[in-house]
Specification:
The protein is built from no helices and 11 strands. It is globular. The strands form 2 sheets. Strands 2, 4, 5, 6, 9, 10 and 11 form a 7-stranded mixed β-sheet that branches. Helix content is 0%, strand content 52%. The protein is an all-beta fold.
């Protein structure tokens, strides 16, 4: 199995930046894709960004394109998401997820493992 632990969330003013980290352990060599999802109170879980774990390729939700950047360091078994130009509507719990088989980049049900989440709060 794979364990995922997110960190880096916190409180930031609108226009500010945060970098989230997702530390993976266990059978990391079997990871196909890593992704970030977010969920705000009363809202559906939303796809944010995804990256192939070993192959080249990144994908972003429309609301974060041009502001967020997903990356990964396979040697450290860690994925990151740099978030710039944060807006109040970005406030949510952000979850890291790992997909172990073929599936959709933005399809939450296709991801097998999830972290506990890290809270991002954006003040105006």
């Amino acid at each position: 199995q794979v364990q995922l632990v997110e960190s880096g969330g916190g409180l930031v003013q609108a226009g500010g930046s945060l970098r989230l980290s997702c530390a993976a352990s266990g059978r990391t060599s079997s990871i196909v894709a890593i992704a970030w999802f977010r969920q705000a109170p009363g809202k559906e879980r939303e796809f944010v960004a995804a990256a192939n774990w070993r192959a080249i390729g990144t994908y972003y939700g429309d609301s974060v394109k041009g502001r967020f950047t997903i990356s990964r360091d396979n040697a450290k078994n860690t994925a990151y998401m740099q978030m710039n130009g944060l807006r109040p509507e970005d406030a949510a719990v952000y979850y890291c997820a790992a997909r172990m088989y073929s599936g959709g980049y933005s399809t939450a049900n296709d991801y097998s493992y999830w972290g506990q989440g890290t809270q991002v709060t954006v003040s105006s």
